[in-house]
From TrEMBL, chains A, B, C, D:
Protein name from the UniProt record: Metal-sensing transcriptional repressor
Superkingdom, taxonomy of origin: Bacteria
InterPro entries: Metal_Tscrpt_repr (IPR003735), Metal_Tscrpt_repr_sf (IPR038390)
Organism annotation: Faecalicoccus acidiformans
Amino acid sequence: MNELKKQYKHKPRDEKEVRNMKSRLHRMVGQLNGIEKMLDEGRYCGDILIQISAIESALQALGYMVLQDHLETCVREKVKEDDEEVMKEVLTLIRKLK
Amino acid sequence: MNELKKQYKHKPRDEKEVRNMKSRLHRMVGQLNGIEKMLDEGRYCGDILIQISAIESALQALGYMVLQDHLETCVREKVKEDDEEVMKEVLTLIRKLK
Amino acid sequence: MNELKKQYKHKPRDEKEVRNMKSRLHRMVGQLNGIEKMLDEGRYCGDILIQISAIESALQALGYMVLQDHLETCVREKVKEDDEEVMKEVLTLIRKLK
Amino acid sequence: MNELKKQYKHKPRDEKEVRNMKSRLHRMVGQLNGIEKMLDEGRYCGDILIQISAIESALQALGYMVLQDHLETCVREKVKEDDEEVMKEVLTLIRKLK
């Protein structure tokens, strides 16, 4: 990604919410490491798939959390500033998320 | 998970495939750590959501990889042994994956 | 659904867009009837599944179309009226769509 | 689709299951017609999206039904005949379904 294109959130995220998001990220890292261990142990494919599906759900939940925050803050602000493009951007993001 | 219920793959996974899977897991861990950094930097929600969606795709690709291996080995074997339950199990796994 | 709870769109939909949406609905009805015919002919499961997946994509595309219209009109309006609940409703709808 | 490429199911589907599938198809056609009526009445986008999501779920359920039947019959048979390609085909179908 182009360094110059980095965008920042106008209004900082709530500290408690950031802590919540980070603890979710840490848990997912733990789950991914768990899968590596399962591969080392030669565990059954079905068990690994259940673990992958658990991480998928955790990731989706995090995505919805960020999206909700996005809608309530950035999108709300931009709509009030009559930004014509913001809803197209929202739809593009929604389509990307599972 | 009950330790006693741990199941193992009958035929060991191909070494090259395990290496491939592990390198995918490592990349995803890197991407999750990247999101933590983005939160620390107060990066734009849209950028974080794009990153989450990239990990979702990577996870889904890994899931399909494990599923394909499962179908080609465990499931194929069980069908040949006239296991009546294996296809129900496959469908349950498919429904869990995104 | 409770007849009394029926809600209406404040600003009417664009006529051309309604025609577009209806023609998509008709095409999907045709595709569903096509599946019925395939069942009568005893067609191969794989062929039927490909047809189902085509309707899923068509339905998803229609959903995004209605969602985009919703975001650009109803949601935009409600944000401007400082409606506190509208983004929660949007997120609930997004979670329901595939 | 090429008429010559039409494939047929080797073992006919269970009559009761075909009736079940057809009644699901008819219900979905009814739901699509319901959306057309909602468009004519200028109904709220949120209500239409909930209806679309209901059809998506119904379609997905039908897809899983056909897939289960496929796994239990065609796929099982082909595995027993040592067909090398069948699992690749299954995975392609799974990836297409939502």
